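Q: Start with the shorter request: fold the first protein.
A: Done. Sequence, then structure:
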Amino acid sequence: MATKRYKPTSAGMRSRQVSGFEEVTTSKPEKSLVKTLKRNAGRNNTGKITVRHRCGGAKKQLRIIDFIRNKDNIPATVKSIEYDPYRSAYIALIFYADGAKSYIICPAKLNVGDVIVSGPDSEISIGNTLPLENIPTGSIIHNVELTIHKGAQLARSAGSYVTLMAKSGNYATLKLPSGELRMVPLKCRATIGQVSNSDKRNTRASKASDSIRRGKRPTVRGSVMNPCDHPHGGGEGRAPIGLSGPRTPWGNTPALGYKTRNKKKSNRLIVKSRKKK
C-alpha cells in the first residue's frame, strides 16, 4: 500500500500522486460478475440537464459485490485482488468450494490463496464474517450491517474500520470512523479486519481531466456569476450575497445540504454523537 509520484515533466504531473496498485493482481474482471450501468450525464429523457456538474466520464463496468455473505460454513479461496472503478477500496474475487464465485470488499492483509468463511462458527481471522455476538470486544471490523440480513452498510470505503466497544442486552456498541458511538443489533454481521487501500486518502488529482474522467464537470461559485444566473451574483468586486442565508441557483434553501438521516429509526440508537468528540 503506497502511492506513486511522477516526475514534474509538466504542470499536470508536478503534483500528481496516485495509488500504487501493488496489491492488485489482475486487471481483467470476472465476466459473470460485472454489468454496465446506463449513464445519462445528469440529463432527463428530454436531454435537459437536471443534475449539474456531471459528465460522461471514462467507460467502466459495475462489479457485483456480495455485502450479505450468507453462504455459511462453505470455505472460499481468494483467487485475485482487483481494482473497482466504482469504489475506493480494492475488491477480492473468491471461489467457494461448491463452485460459486463472488466479489467481496478486500480487507487489508488479505492475500491470494487465503481461505475465508462466513457463519457464526467461523474463526476470528481477517476476511471472515460473523454475527457481532460472536466477535470479541475490541475487535477491528468492517462491512457492518445496520439491519439484520440487509447487507453491510458501515465501513466500506478504503481504509475505514469500526471498533467493537461493548455488548449489552441485544445490542453491540460500535465506534465509527467519525467518532460516533452507535448501537447495532447483535445478530447483525460484520467482517474481521480493516478495509484495504488505506493510502487512497494520500492521492491527489493534479489536473482538470482527472475529475472529467470521474464524471465530474467544473463547478463555478455563484458569487462570481451575474445576478440573472444566480441569487449570489452581481455587485462590484467581491460582494456579500445580501441574503439571510445561501441560496441555490433557483433561490431555494437550504443550499448547503440538509440532514437525511431518519430521526425515529436512527437517532435513538446513537450513544454519542460525532459532533461531541
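Q: Next, the second protein, separately.
A: Sequence, then structure:
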Amino acid sequence: MCTVTFVNSNDRIIITSNRDEKIARAKAIEPKNYLINHKKVFFPKDAKAGGTWYAVDENANVIVLLNGAREKHIRKDSYKKSRGLVVLDLIGSDSILKEWQRIELELIEPFTLVVFENLKLYQLRWDGEHKETIQLDENKNHIWSSVTLYSPEIREFRANWFTKFMNSHQNVDENDLYNFHRHTQENDIENGLVINRDNFLKTLSITQSVIDKNKVCLYHYNLEEDEKFVNSFIVI
C-alpha cells in the first residue's frame, strides 16, 4: 500500500507491494479468489472496509494502491467511499482504463494506482479534484513510495536504494525482490522498506505477483504472524 516496485526481468513481470498500516486496524484476510461482475479476481481483503490494496484478475491485469497522489494532503473528517473499494470497482470492470475515465471520484481521498493492463503499465492518480493518467515504460523498472508517509527526500533515498539494488543484481527474480522489500535498510525502522513507527504504524505484509507468460503466481507474506500464502493460475 505504501511501497511498490515494478520489475520486468527475463520477460517476467514482478510487482511487489509493502502495506504500511496502523496496527489497530483489523487483520486483513489472506488472498482468495472472488467473483466480481462474473470475473475472477484474486486479492487480500481489508477486513474493515472490504476493499483491497492489491488485486489481480483472471487475465493477469494488476492494480496496486498507494495512499496519496503527488503531494501529501490534509485529510477530511470523512469520505464517501474507501479507496480500496475503488480498486475493486476498477478491477471488476471490462477495462480498467476505460472505467477509470468513467468512474466518479468526488469525495474520495487522494490516491495513486499502479496498473498493469494488457501488458501495458500505467500510473493513475486522483488528487481530490483531478484524475491523471500516465503511461509508463513497461520495459523499465519503477518504484513508488507513498507521499503520505515519506517526504520527497526520503522518497529519493528509497529510489536510490532501488536503483543500487537493481544494478547489483543480474536476472533478478521474485525472491531477490522479496528480500529487497523485506530487508533493505532494516535498521531504519522509520523510513526503511519495513517500518515500525512507535508500534503504531507498521509494515504488516508484502504482496507480490509474478506474471510469466500465461502463468500468474500471487504471493502474500503476513509479517506479523510469519505466514505465507500462495495462489497461482493459468491465463487461458
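Q: Describe the second briefly.
A: The first helix runs from residue 83 to 91. Residues 145 and 155 are 6 Å apart (CA to CA).
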